[in-house]
Amino acid sequence: MPHQLTRTTWTGGQLLAFSGLDGPTDYRRGLTARTAFGPPGLDIVLPGRAHLLFSADPARGVWISGDAFRLGEGPDAVTGAFLDAHHLLISGPCTVEHPDTALTCLQENGRTLIGTAEGFQPERIATDIDRAFADRRRWLRQQSLPPQTDPAATRTLLKGLSLMKSQVYSPEGKIRHRWTTPDRWPHRAMWLWDSAFHAVGWRHLDPDMARDALSAVLDTQAADGFIAHRMDPKRLSAITQPPVLALGAKAVHDLHPATNWIASVYPKLAAYLEWDFAHRDRDGVGLLEWEIEGNPHCRSGESGMDNSPRFDAATCMDAVDFNALLARECEIMAEFARELGRTEDADRWTQHHRRLCRLIRERLWSEDLKFFVDYDLETDAPSDVLACSGFLPLLCGAASPEQAAKLVEHLQNPDTFGTPFPVPSVAACQARNLGKDMWRGPVWINLNWLIAEGLDRYGYTGPADDLRQQTRSEIERHCETYGTFFEFYDADRETDPPRLHRKGACAPEESPYKQVFHDFGWTATLYVDLCFRCG
What we know:
The chain is α+β, with helices and mostly antiparallel strands. Helix content is 36%, strand content 13%.
């Protein structure tokens, strides 16, 4: 049944673009806009730049989604909708400032049509704007929502669904399925582990879309099994990313079983994990190591935890997160193999899982710290950095019951991970000397989701449910203020996300990469998952 769409918040940083759910997108030339900071307006950010200024008063009503908006009432009211990947039509007072040559703008009879210079169609200015606006709202109105007693939760959930829709691209180039991006700007491309977490949310709305998000990543796989951490229709990066594709596939399959699909992706998932085993175990001990770079603000982009202090001094280390996630992938692959009748495969994946769990338990547990830590191969010593990655052995079953109990104690200890908003990316006692910068203290929603899953596995359902509820509440609190989902959040609840540092600074005037990302993908999709599972 269609539901009533509630008012939303007009704040800076919300992204708008044409969705691949509605038609063909265009990775290189597609139009992308962002709500402006300051007076009401839009900044066109791709494929060129322009600033649109509106005179409408947000206090008189706002409705905004990822592909349409209505602002104000009366003669100053402004309505806008993406007609396709290349055209945004606006009705109402609009001033266009500083459009560059990649864009074309046409204004007449109180309307503004702005689009990409290549293929601009001026006749589209006559499109029925009310119908276009209604078309863009329809998908959101038709989504079935879980029961929500709290209006703030309902508003946040609707924003999350809208954001998810705007993340979708249509098939293009080497990517043969619909695919998702962490954000339409500045990331733009598809990312390995993001896509898995996107599928976790999409499974509640559209299982075919959830499967596409994972299959699209596998479309880019190299002949030797390698999967890049970042890919677009034409290019791939040279490093990989945390192995979570089987985890995402299991999440979708558990809710919407499709054995034929599992059979189609199984060989690709297997080849990907075998590539990791073959290329990321430098010392041959059996535990795997991330690629570590020299960039001080991104020493291990492969890990996904770019600037974590785990990597500050290390050059090669057996990594807790890599091995715990890999062990969980092997465990899931054994499940898939049994379902497909591949008995020998199932035994092999089970052996991989057991061996990794044993090595994690024996080599990566610090009895002094009562925590799982990385092992530095160069110094032949365990790391002294307590990071959120140390909880991930719960996910794969590597922790002994006694070790699991100690990890739960850390979640309740304010000096380590019992912060006002848990789970900090680095223990509080260490983060105080590092600043509030990405993986050097702030909280990441995907790690909270994984840790809660691990707590459930060991029977700590109370702490798991508490963590999920705190995560939902923090996201809702900031979405009410800023109208967006952020990349990461302050563990101390002292600093609002837009003022946190990202890779050394909070300086959005210098670069969009120097501020926490707004309208961030997995924060929305995992929030949606929590709502459907717990709401």
